[in-house]
Amino acid sequence: MSAPAKGPAIETAGLTRTFHTRRERDVLALRGVDLRVERGECFGLLGPNGAGKSTLIKILTTLLLPTSGSARVAGFDVAKEALAVRHRINLVSGGDSSGYGILTVRETLHLFARFYGVPWPEAKRRAEELMEITGLGPKADTRMSGLSTGMKQKVNFARGFMSDPEIVFLDEPTLGLDVEASRAIRSFIARWVRERPDRTVLLTTHYMVEADELCWRVAIIDHGRILALDTPRALKRALPEETVFVLHLAAPPPAGWDAGIGGIESAIHQTHPGTGGTELRVTLREDQVIGEILGAFRQRDIEVLDLTKHEPTLESVFVNLVGRGLDEADAPEAEARA
Amino acid sequence: MSREPRTFADVLRMNLGAVTARASVRMVAAFRERSWLFGETVFPFLSMSTFVLVYRGLHAPPAFEAFAVLGGAMIAYWNNVLWSMASQFFWEKEQGQLQLYLITPVSRMSILLGMALGGMLATTTRAIVILAAGLWIFHVPFPLERVPAALGLFVLTLGALYGLGMILSSVFLLWGREAWNTVTLFQEPVYLASGFYFPVRALGTFVASAAGLIPITLGLDGIRQIFYGEAARGFLPLAWIVPIQAVLLVLYLFLAHRALLTMENLGKREGRLTIRGG
Q1: Which of A141, A175, A282, A324 can bridge A328 by disulfide, Cβ–Cβ 3.0-4.6 Å?
Q2: What is the pLDDT of residues A23-43, one digit of tens each?
Q3: Contact assessment for residue A140 and residue A106, using Cβ atoms and an 8 Å cutoff
């Protein structure tokens, strides 16, 4: 079976998935999704609940059949060559826990390694390494039933990497984790991809920062359709938004301070009544104009205490494309079933 | 990196690894969680004792007391098949764990076989305790020289019984939304219909034949005949029981394989294998 090793890690063409419901009309969870994820890429899939992210992941991990269209993972057809796909992938779904309460953390990781035919010495080494990285080391011999939800989720995460997969699907991997645990998981993913340039990560997330930090390219999906696909930087640049600079000044700017400076869309300042410190918010057509502004204050002996550039975020890209924020979307019934 | 098996031996090794891995969970659970051991030995022992004492009170032949002891030991397997085989995939799905098994590259039959093997071994410890306690406390006659022959039929029976459990696990997964109720529905009637505490012949040909589809019915009938001959009041001749059990074993394993494929394909088509969305 082992043939394809070239070509994209993931490729879908016209992928459609319909859920038939008895009471209501059919629900289209995916509507002709075309996607190409290159090998070695950390690819993000952003979308609200019910957008089709998990349905797509379930099809790619051979848990669900497409209604129409095709999907290939590691060069193999997910419907016709599911076994070949399974040898090469793993899946981590946030919010789930792996294993049985009666087993310890270490035993759980060893258990799942055996389902992938990982030789014992390798499984042992990987388990120790993953427990160390995810901070599970001190809990290695604790039963799963004695772990907190966050710890269980870390075990689930470590399990997903026990088989050292070619392509790993991370479905909301930091869902419900505290800030520190999320950061540890993110840094592990970044390191894993960096150290293994031939491996691929497909990450779905609610957290824009996570996608921005980890993903080289991001697809924004809603109602089963891919609305945009590019690098986070390109997506942000494509926004019809100006750059906003926020300056903290030691004193209020005199009237007419901006005379002769072109390219300022708007300038609003607010002075703190007690300290006299001023926050000036300027919207510019071009970044370079900030140099002229700083020069104008220097000439007037007004000290600039602090300067911050506020760039568009993936959140604003998302809102611009979808018309609402991530938390404002409802999940269609079919997605909840998938 | 993925290590796709290249030869049949590699595939076999990988799947045997999965069988032992899944079986080991049951074994670890059996010895680590002692409260289960208590619940699964003491309570069946008490039920069995009731029947032994009733037979003794009625001055029934001693073989009847032995029927109850053997039946009491075998009940542990039926409970294990229902609670830890038939409903297992359903629970795994509810916990979001089934999908983790389904994305592994091993055969689903290996996972089921592992569950069955682990269940059999773990339950055997309970069955031995119940049997030994029954024989020791009630001084039931037990011809030890016939144990090897009985053991042969016992192994055949367990194979067929757990084959049935494997079929049920797929059936329960797709249609047993309320697994608890379904399990309860099966549990008590089978205690009666399979003749755990009395010769199944007493139920008449029709009921006994129907109950024979559950391998433990004829297995128990045959084992009693091996130990106690005519006194066992067997339903079918032993010469028939062995081939019937062998046929049931092959048939149930085949059907379990088919049910598993059907379950997986149907589940993949209808999206019934997982419960989470997102």
Answers
A1: A324
A2: 667 888 999 999 999 999 999
A3: yes
Structure tokens at B44: 């069946």
Whether A246 and chain B come into contact, CB under 8 Å, resolves to no
Q: Is A126 on the interface with B (CB under 8 A)?
A: no
| Whole-number pLDDT of residue B278 | 37
pLDDT tens digits for range B125-177: 889 988 999 989 998 888 889 999 999 999 999 999 999 999 988 888 877 66
Task: Give the 3-state secondary structure of residue B80.
Answer: helix
CA distance B120 to B112: 12
Q: List chain A residues with CB under 8 Å of B10.
A: 117
Angle (CA) B24-B18-B25 rounded to 5° is 20
Q: Which of B100, B101, B271 sits opposite A338 (nearest CB)?
A: B271
Mean pLDDT of chain B: 87
Residues A337 and A124: their CA atoms lie apart, in Å, by 36
CA distance B67 to B71: 6
> Which chain B residues are closer than 8 Å to A112 by Cβ?
100, 104
Q: How confident is the model at residue A274 (pLDDT cuts 50, 70, 90)?
A: confident
Which chain B residue lies closest to A64 (C-alpha atoms)?
B268
Could you give the angle at which helices B8-32 and B34-57 cross, rounded to 10 degrees?
A: 70
CB atoms inside a 10 Å sphere around CB A121: 8
Q: Do B29 and A164 touch (CB under 8 A)?
A: no
Side-by-side strand order, sheet with A243-249: A264-271, A278-284, A243-249, A304-310
Q: What is the pLDDT of residues A78-91, one digit of tens each?
A: 999 999 999 999 99
**Separation of CA A87 from chain center:** 24
Question: Is a pLDDT exceeding 60 seen at residue A45?
Answer: yes
